[in-house]
Amino acid sequence: MAESLRNPPLAEAIFELQLKPTAGWDWTVAGLLYERFKEQFSERGQAVAVAMPGLPVNIQPVMGFQRVQLKRPDGSAMIQIAPNQLVVNHLRPYPGWVSFKKLVLAVVEGFLASGPRLDPIGMHLRYVNLVGPLPRQGDLSAVLTVLPQLSGPLMRESAGFYQRHELIYDQPKGVLVLQAGLTVMEKGPQVVLDLDFVSATNGAGGVDTVEALSTWLEEAHENVGAAFRAALTDRAYHGFKE
Fold this sequence. Notes:
nine-stranded antiparallel β-sheet; 5 helices
């Protein structure tokens, strides 16, 4: 993702910001943010936040509260607002990193102009990719370098698999959560490659301006892009460039 791909496998790009309870959030933020972005995100809705198994505690949705959702009419992007939480989602067609980052920063600036302070306890930049269909059922080695380590009688085609790695980074401080699994879609079996860069709790506190957030986004995106490239075989990766 650090390199522009002609046919990227991206299914969804997500930025999430979670603020400290003392950041000055209240429900008027959602209405003010809608007024600011209603020309682009004209459709409003609500959803109940639920706990997501496997997510670090510092980026868990706030339990029991509703999220206000602001959506583009074509469904390509969405802003979600919950107590002390802001999420920007972008589905296909993905406009590229420069445009997505510009959207994230614009939404955060609007969010902060509505009242809260930028005092995060957690941030993450997440890319969910669908790679495939596989040439043969269970032929993971055709697309992935991150493979289950099986031997002996276990060496056979896979009907399904899931694995998760949490990799520690220093620049910026955080953890890259790499999840890979096999799913069956209409076109055949595909690999889900989920790359989620999560800020360290003590590292998020240094992001107190939009400029600092812009730097964090660039560094996080570089790490996600390098992990994306390393997780794919040369053949699979170059196929997305054609």
